[in-house]
Amino acid sequence: MKSFTLIAAVLAASSSAAIAAPAGQSNGVLADGDGMTLYIFDNDTAGTSNCYGGCAKSWPPFIAAAGASAEGAFTLVERKDGAMQWALDGQPLYYWAGDRKPGDINGDGVGGVWHVLN
């Protein structure tokens, strides 16, 4: 897991939570602007998402707003459908369908390959 500092306004890109930029930490872990936890997937490679189909239904990718630009450690990864997904140091970021409210971390450790960043 990586450590990082709160970066609240670094990438404010959209008013829609589903396509907002990473905003900082919630409950001590990386979260979007609404406090929903973001996860990484061990089966991804730097700059490449390997979560599609059923995987992406359970682990929705953290999609960037059109025209969003990467800054600092936050990068963008192009998905197979052309959508741009937020990444941290090239590692694509996802939500977990089992998280219901800001601060939930129910996906941490799922299958031994999904992890929060704190």
TrEMBL record:
Keyword Signal found: yes
Residues that span the membrane, as ranges: none
Top-level taxonomic group: Bacteria
Residues in the signal sequence: 1-20
Keywords: Signal
PANTHER family xref list: BLL4220 PROTEIN (PTHR39335:SF1)
Record protein name field: Lipoprotein with Yx(FWY)xxD motif
Organism of this sequence: Psychromarinibacter halotolerans
